[in-house]
Amino acid sequence: MPQITLFAPDVTCDHCIATIQKTVERVEGARFIEGDPDSRSFAVDLAQGAVLDRLSEALAAEGYPLGPAAPARAAAPVASTGDGADAASEAAASAFAPSYTVEKSPEGASITYTCPCGSTTEHYTYDRSRPEQDLGSCCDHHLLVQPGAGERLRALKPGYEVDVQTLEMPWGQPVEAAFASKG
What is the CATH topology of the domain spanning 3-61? Predict the structure, then answer.
């Protein structure tokens, strides 16, 4: 079961988290893991992406619609190379940092991104029913969006520069976006 973190902006206290837990437990294919009223977030395991739709509807009916993380997260570098360099140094060394637009799609999310070739209409589909996402490519540049994307993309494309940012999915979950380009 994939674990995701979700946000409900109307959460104010532990009682809210308890109500969310009871609601999650009533949705087949969902399991509550933990919640934090201070960040207005909670973690769940989901059997498949379609369970998220049912869970979202049930939470909205209880007065806790899913929403963005509070405060809203801006795209920012989040990973390091593992050799001691921090994320900011790695981002500064990267030759290209794409910009992203994330929209809800039937599969989960449709991500439009820029590419150094000049294309501004490259599309990537994040399929929330799959724990491992497919690699997107444009002119020998590669995009991967999933938890741990930076690490996986570095293993798949050694010798490439990798820019890692955090994207917020339409259901409020932050997910790594890793973009690889030749230096």
Answer: Alpha-Beta Plaits (3.30.70)
